[in-house]
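dude i think i finally got it to work??
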Amino acid sequence: MAAIAALTLSAPLPSIAADAAPAPAAQKPAAKPAAKAGARAAAKPARSTADIIATAPAADWRDVDPDNLLLMTLPQGQVFIELAPRFAPAHVDNIRALARGGYYDGLAIVRVQDNFVTQWGDPNADDEDAGIKGKAKPFPTGAKDHLPAEFSIPLKGVPLTVLPDVDGWAPRAGQVDGFPAAADPRTGRAWLAHCYGSVGAGRGNAVDSSTGAELYAVIGHAPRGLDLNITVVGRVLRGMEFLSSLPRGGATMGFYDKPEQRLGIERVALASALPPDERPALQVLRTDTRTWQELLEARRHRGGWFVHSPEHTDVCTAAAPVRTRPVDVKLNEPKSPAVKS
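look at this
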């Protein structure tokens, strides 16, 4: 069982100067001062985020390709995962082959580490850390037992909608096809970011030891330190409540100590393998639209209940909304970004 290294994140808080000069005593009413140039005004959004999403034009939504939609059925409910072939084509192809071959069916959630990840896979697989040779479930026909690491891709041609806000983990951050992503123009690389709901492929010590047979979802504070160290294969669109509310595992990085603590996986299937009338009709808000920009501004400039407007957003809090396609909406557009192998 490949473990994802736990991170201990700690940093001193920046110091704030407290030696502000005292305000001069008021001697007479003064004229209303003009607004300082460059000052950030906490402007209330003209519309609420809920209103922006509810009234978004049909063309601002894209259908999720059923061949990129993974349905994991747990006793509590279903988890819907959109795969990201643009960023991890080899892993996505392998996950598709594993799902088509029924590999995940009957496996288990083996790890739930508080504020970190929920991880699932074959509990009988080899334990690299303990040096134990297991009796792993064989891969189905078409699935590969070795893949290259897919930590990043060339930045050229990637349709990154860049956030104007500063990101502490990368020179640029934003959205690609609705997935949280980051990039570095100096290296010419782009990658998917580890945000809440991101799904990655567990690996061992070797950088090319992930196959997609073991997957995890981030259930806590975004562990961005994992960026560029693990292949991210997609993100959870719906059903996070079934992954984040599970009983936490033991002291060994959240792995369950006893077999009876594990949660069995009933089935994992691609939506494309289901009859057309049974496929979930999910849509993701396109992040290359005016609606998305308006939504970001509404999140950046908070009013109403908020006493203090943050005037800031980041790639992990700017998640692209998901909805079920209205029955009266039919789009003649690609269901999701097509990526050639």
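The domain at 49-324 is CATH 2.40.100.10 (Cyclophilin).
im so relieved honestly
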